[in-house]
Structures are given as C-alpha cells and as structure tokens.
Amino acid sequence: xxxxxxxxxxxxxxxxxxxxxxxxxxxxxxxxxxxxxxxxxxxxxxxxxxxxxxxxx
Length: 57
Hints:
- The chain has helices at 5-22, 25-29, 31-50.
- It is mainly α.
- The protein has one domain.
- 0% of the residues are buried.
C-alpha cells in the first residue's frame, strides 16, 4: 500500500501541510488552546470509533 503513488502523494501533501501549520503564527501564540482542542477532537473521534455519539458543543 505504501508503494501506491496516491498514498505517496497524500503523504507528501500531509507533510507539507503540517510544516505550514508548525510555523503558523496564531498557533505558535495560542498553542495551549490548539492542543486542548485537538485532544477533545481526538477523544470524540475515538469515541465514534467505539460507537459512542458525542458532541463537542
């Protein structure tokens, strides 16, 4: 699967996007809030995989 050209292209796009986010000035100043939101979204996604229906609102 990793040899598939579409997977390689998607990986390159993700790496580039992550690099841009790393230097995003708003995230650099408010990283604590961004980290907390990412943790909440991750928990909701994990719950969804397990079948739980949870809202972030």
